[in-house]
Fold this protein.
Amino acid sequence: MLEDLIKHEKGFKYVEKGSGEPLVILHGLMGGLSNFNEVIEYFSRYFRVLMPELPVYSFPLLKTNVKGFSKFLHDFFKFKGIENPILLGNSLGGHVSLYYTSVHPEKVKALILTGSSGLYERGFGESFPQRKNYEYIKKKTQEVFHNPRHATKELVDEVFRIVNDRSKIIRTLALAKSAIRHNMSKELQKMKVPACLIWGKQDSVTPPEVAEEFHKLLPDSDLYWIDEAGHAPMMEKPAEFIRLMEAWLKKRKLMNA
C-alpha cells in the first residue's frame, strides 16, 4: 500500500520507492499522493521514484505561489540529495516543474507533463459562489474527469471541506491566481530539455489546444493523447498512461529497453 511508504522528515511529507535514477512526481492543486498510485508502483521497478506533498495549505500565504513551490522543490532535492531528475507533473505540479526547469535548466534531465497549467487553465474561477452547496461542488469536481465516477464521494467530500475552510480556500485561490500570473509562454521556447506531453482528449481544465500550444512552444517535445480521459489521465487511464510514458522514456533512451 502506498500509504505505508509515506515519510515525514525535516518538514517534508513524501513517498519514496525504488532505486536508480530519480523520477520526481508533483501532484496538482486539489491532488495528492494517491493520484499516481499505479505510476509509482510500476516505475519504481526502474527508477528511484519520489513524490513530495506540495505544501498547499501549510506554507506562509506570501510564499503560496508557483515561485515559492519551486523553491520548496529545490529544498526537497537538496534534502534528499537528488540531482538531474526526470520531473513528472500534473496540473499545478506541471507548472511548478516548468518554473523550476526555467530557473535551473541544467538540473533537470527531462519533463513529463499531463494537464499542466502554465499557459491557460479553466478551474473553479477566482471565487466559489456556491461553496456551501454540496451538489455544486460535486458537479465541479466531476468536471475534472471524463468519467464522473472517478469523482468519488471521498474526493468530493475532501474538496467540499477545502472550499469551506477559510484558510485553505484563501491559499487555493492564491495558487490559482499565481498560476495565471506566471504564464510560461516566453520561457518555454528556451527550454532545451526533452519534454513528453500526455494529455486527456477530454480535458476541460487545460483543453487540448493548451497541449498543442505547449507542443509548439517547447523545442524538444512529443505529444500523446489518451481518449476518454480528462484532466488527470494517470487516474482515469493508468495503464494507457504508463504505456505511453514508458514508450517515450525508452525512445529518448531515458529508460532501459
User: Anything to note?
Assistant: The CA atoms of residues 159 and 165 lie 10 Å apart. The radius of gyration is 17 Å. The chain has one domain: 2-121+183-251. The beta strands are 6-9, 12-17, 22-26, 48-52, 86-90, 110-114, 195-200, 221-226.
